[in-house]
């Protein structure tokens, strides 16, 4: 995360990954947020988001945009835990990527 990040760009993927790791701990994964220096950031609308780790101490995997970030996170779940698990997580967070119209 970085100062002025759009809240949904950070929180959307967090929702996917946190739902997965909390509801399916048997998959053996954990989720964390990172910032450049490991310190909290202030998002575009003023929400302060805490980081768990600094960029230099984090593994590689990133995306941009609200739905792109959610889609990236679901893709990660599918790669690490399978397509069925990704569908369970998508349903669990009530994410339906089809346009309503």
Provide structural commentary.
There is one protein chain. This protein is 43% helix and 8% strand. It has 101 residues and is mostly helical. The strands form 2 sheets. Strands 1-4 form a two-stranded parallel ribbon. It has a two-stranded antiparallel sheet with strand order 2-3. A hairpin with a 5-residue loop joins strand 2 and strand 3. The relative contact order is 0.21. The mean pLDDT is 88.
Write the layout of secondary structure elements.
Layout: H1 7-23, E1 34-35, E2 41-42, E3 48-49, E4 53-54, H2 66-81, H3 83-92
Parallel strand pairs: 1-4
Antiparallel strand pairs: 2-3
The radius of gyration computed from the alpha-carbon positions, rounded to a whole number of angstroms, is: 14 Å
**Total individual domains:** 1
Unreliably modeled segments: none
Helix content: 40-55%
For the biggest sheet, the summary is:
2 strands, parallel
Query: Structural class, please?
Result: mainly alpha
Number of helices: 3
Q: What's the arrangement of strands in the largest beta sheet?
A: 1-4
- Beta-strand percentage range: 5-15%
SSE string: HEEEEHH
Arithmetic mean pLDDT:
88
Total beta strand runs? 4
Describe the global form.
globular
Q: What is the first-to-last residue Cα distance?
A: 32 Å
């Amino acid at each position: 995360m970085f100062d002025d990040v759009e809240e949904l760009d950070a929180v959307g993927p967090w929702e996917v990954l946190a739902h997965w790791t909390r509801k399916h701990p048997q998959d053996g994964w954990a989720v964390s947020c990172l910032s450049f220096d490991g310190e909290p950031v202030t998002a575009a609308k003023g929400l302060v988001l805490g980081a768990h780790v600094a960029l230099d101490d984090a593994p590689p995997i990133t995306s941009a945009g609200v739905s792109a970030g959610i889609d990236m996170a679901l893709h990660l779940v599918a790669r690490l835990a399978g397509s069925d698990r990704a569908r369970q997580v998508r349903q669990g967070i009530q994410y339906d990527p089809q346009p309503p119209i």
